[in-house]
Amino acid sequence: MRLLWLIFIVQLFVLFPATVSAQEKKIYVSRDANGVLVFSDSPTPGSEEVSFKVKPNLMEATEVRFPERKAPTPETYNVEILQPEHQGTVRDNTGSVYISGRITPRFQRGFRVRLLLNGMPHGDPKSSTAFVLRDIERGEHTLQLQLLDQSGKLIATSQITTFYLHRASLIRPK
Prior knowledge:
Blueprint: H1 2-24, E1 27-31, E2 37-40, E3 48-50, E4 78-83, E5 88-91, E6 97-104, E7 112-117, E8 120-121, E9 130-133, E10 139-148, E11 154-157, E12 161-166
Parallel strand pairs: 5-12
Antiparallel strand pairs: 1-2, 1-3, 4-6, 6-9, 7-8, 7-10, 10-11, 10-12
């Protein structure tokens, strides 16, 4: 504790006289016979007192303006169903339908693709555009692919594709 007080008192003695002397001392400037500036702490005939209240070498602060950055344009994705073809017929007695799609440009990691069958989500979103449907009833069906970002926000959708599934009838097997 004594050491801290001692350091504090020493600092006061060191700093206090420097601030008092800087406030009391005056600087004078004059020109000698050759026209060279002469600085002195004592006034001479024809000398002027230098004021340190105004700092002539410093410029006033100006507002800094950076060029405006345009927000990056979000990529527009194109989603399409390649198979089955629109208005196409699928013949499979087990009711299996293989769906493939394409997204351009290639979508980012974390994006997901959701399949809508007859307007309703079918299964969980996947990281690919290949889907397999099993045990689908015969008849007319619609498909649509949706591209979702990491937070589940809809980015792009495909056109609705209509296909017809043909299965052998249980009434007339042949």
